[in-house]
Design a protein that fits this description.
Aspartate Aminotransferase, domain 2; Aspartate Aminotransferase, domain 1; four-stranded mixed beta sheet; pyridoxal phosphate; single chain; seven-stranded mixed beta sheet; alpha/beta; 39% helix; 406 residues; 14 helices; 2 domains
């Protein structure tokens, strides 16, 4: 007999690192989720930029159940067909020569940073260990990745932190130039800072980082955990910018909701990661790779990628209209379907309150820090769902300016 479950159980049983919404979703389809009470929500949160094909996509269900009926796991003493197929798909679609699979974005970044260090140590000596990252960046929650991340709130309680990591100011190339030298082994950067507030890098910033890395023989790592797999209207954001990294990390949307991460590498960097230097029990497991292979083949088509650009227009036009009515935002920014609405100064710190009012209206949105409401919907969200969802957002904004809290 199954036990009845309520949201209060979370507060009693779970380690209190999250503050989930007051409802529990139990079923999803496309851009919709329903909670235990049967209330429907338009989902513009997309599981934090994960559910690129929405919920319960028939092709993903087919890929998962087909593989589930064959075998689930062998560990890395054996390879498998879905992993090799997915690796070839990623190689054919990107700059990469080789792929390492893991289970999350943090793990992919951990692998990237370790690869960059090993490459530098092998080729130039152990003095070349410096990592340059950026303030406000987010790269995951392992000790190495919170240290590379530029939000001290996520790392300061866990000191001592790994040494030799410093932080420049995002989009300020002069601040990076003074940090990058011959002792730098890697520069890690998000082409669009996601958690940091949906802030796109400028083209010149990424181009100049590329040039500095070339000059100092450092690896340029693009963290595309949030921007990858079609989110910007290109398969990866580096294609949007025309700046190619040496190492690229991808996760989130790659599995469409099934946990998977990957490190994409050029041959030179991959070649230093010899047998036994790195690994994971579950990385490249056939269930995850079967689903991701399906997700990638659906998303990496002109139809879906152009559709993202079309949807970006729908979102931005309607959000501008909502803003013309309520005057909440000083900027509506982002690329493709990673969109941030930055609150005007008089509403600073209130993004969470707006997201709670939206949930009350039957709409799931994200925040990115305390001042930005973020949208990361399915890349194939239907126009009628965009319209309905943004009508609900307008209703939430109206209640917010009227002084209501949820
Ligand atoms: C840019 C970026 N890198 C890394 C991560 C960490 O990914 P994960 O939570 O899968 O470890 C995130 C998650 O939000 C992210 O946005």
């Amino acid at each position: 007999m199954s036990q009845s479950i309520s949201r209060q159980d979370f507060d009693q049983w779970m380690m209190p690192v999250y503050a989930p919404a007051p409802f529990i979703p139990v079923r999803g389809e496309g851009a919709w989720l329903w909670d235990q009470q049967g209330k429907g929500y338009v989902d513009f949160a997309g599981g934090i930029a994960v559910n690129a094909l929405g919920h319960a996509h028939p092709a993903m269900i087919r890929a998962l159940t087909e593989q589930a009926g064959k075998f689930w796991h062998t560990g890395n003493g054996y390879t498998n067909e879905p992993a090799l197929r997915l690796a070839k798909q990623l190689i054919d679609a990107t700059f990469a020569d080789r792929i390492f699979f893991c289970n999350s974005g943090a793990e992919a970044n951990e692998a990237a940073l370790k690869t960059a260090r090993k490459y530098a140590h092998d080729r130039f000596g152990s003095h070349k260990s410096g990592i340059v990252a950026f303030k406000n960046a987010f790269h995951g929650r392992t000790l190495f990745t919170v240290s590379a991340g530029g939000q001290p709130a996520y790392s300061q309680d866990f000191a001592p932190l790994p040494p030799d990591i410093c932080h420049g100011v995002y989009n300020d190339i002069d601040s990076a130039r003074v940090l990058i030298d011959d002792d730098t082994c890697a520069v890690i950067v998000e082409p669009i800072q996601g958690e940091g507030g949906v802030i796109p890098a400028s083209l010149e910033f990424l181009q100049e980082l590329r040039a500095l890395c070339d000059r100092h023989h450092a690896a340029l790592i693009f963290d595309e955990v949030q921007t990858g797999v079609g989110r910007t209207g290109e398969l990866y954001a580096y294609m949007h910018y025309g700046v190619t990294p040496d190492l690229l990390t991808t996760a989130k949307a790659l599995g469409g909701g099934f946990p998977i991460g990957a490190l994409l590498a050029s041959e030179a960097f991959a070649s230093v990661m010899t047998v036994g230097t790195h690994g994971t029990t579950y990385g490249g497991n056939p269930l995850a790779c079967a689903v991701a292979g399906e997700v990638l083949s659906i998303i990496n088509t002109p139809q879906v990628l152009n559709g993202v650009k079309q949807r970006e227009q729908w979102f931005k036009e309607r959000l501008q209209a909502i803003n013309a009515q309520f005057g909440l935002f000083k900027e509506i920014r982002g690329v493709g379907l990673l969109i941030g609405c930055a609150l005007r100064d008089e509403y600073a710190g209130k993004a969470k309150q707006i997201s709670l009012l939206a949930a009350d209206e039957g709409l799931m949105v994200l925040i990115a820090g305390a001042n930005v409401v973020r949208f990361a919907p399915a890349l194939i969200v239907k126009e009628e769902d965009v319209t309905l969802g943004l009508n609900r957002f307008a209703a939430a904004c109206e209640r917010f300016v009227a002084g209501e809290s949820s």
